[in-house]
Amino acid sequence: MLPTVISDIFSRRLQTTATLHGHIGPVISIAFSPSGAFMASGGADGVKIWDLKTYKEINIPQQSYHERAQVSSVCWITRKNDSIAQTRQVRQLVTVPPTDERFQSRFEAVFSTRIARGGEILCVTADITGNDQTRIATCTRDKCVQVWLFNSANCQLVPVYSKAYKDNREIVPKSVAFDDNANRDLFVFGLYDGGLYKYSGKDATTLSKYQLGSQIGNAAVDLERRLCVIDNVGNGFDIYKVDTGSFVRTLSTGDPLKTHPKGVAFVDRSHAIVGGSDHGQVYVFDRKTGKVLRKLKHSRQGGAETIAVSLLTHIAVDRA
């Protein structure tokens, strides 16, 4: 049973707020709700949702047997009420709370479907900035990227476009992010090939592609500053310009004892970057200088691999 730690990283003294117990096995994905009221975590035993006022687990209905699987990625979809998109290894599941204010801490499954070729869903992200319905993008280990419209009225996913990479190319999409332009173009980061690809939000045509490194374990995008930070699956994290692929700097966590994907995120309006490591430390870097501002010792053994950040300057971490 592995704990999830929530910390206030920009107080004068680094502080652990709570350790949450509940998962059996590793926690693979974490996401705060935009309101900061809830946190979702996914692992081999499914998804759990936590009330961050009480730090108690919220009971959610158990899915049927054929829908139970490892949850590799979670994200929240919020307009008026907190909603969550949850990805399992072989299907997409969207859960939303009822609109009645008396039941704002209640969540239930409302939609489930098999997507792509049935491979593990490595990442899911949502965009709610457009005038039409919310867009959701998913990427899978079987080399597929798909974009959907989420209809909040009937809780259905409507396909917009999909892209499948050829079998002879080592492009496995690991992370995706929407651009903030009118077309809502899509950035895709390749796991094994280290590429950054940008596709049109209209028809998925390739707009640009850049080689960022040999591999990309995870990625985060700052659209305001047109930057991205990637886990280089080695000595730390690298910052690049998303529009040109130009290298900016490396944020070093030291020579790795072993290599595996590490979580990374922009924080404090992108003045800082938070990233994990293979040796149990969580690093907080100054974005402009690369200097280490804080270190959080999360575990004595194993890596700090899963990281989420809220707008309230809290982070959640766990190790796989």
UniProtKB/TrEMBL annotation:
WD repeat intervals: 20-60
Keywords noted in UniProt: Repeat, WD repeat
Keyword Endoplasmic reticulum annotated: no
KW Repeat (keyword) present: yes
One Pfam match: WD40
GO cellular component, one term: transferase complex
PANTHER family in the cross-refs: WD REPEAT DOMAIN 5B, WD40 REPEAT PROTEIN
Record protein name field: Uncharacterized protein
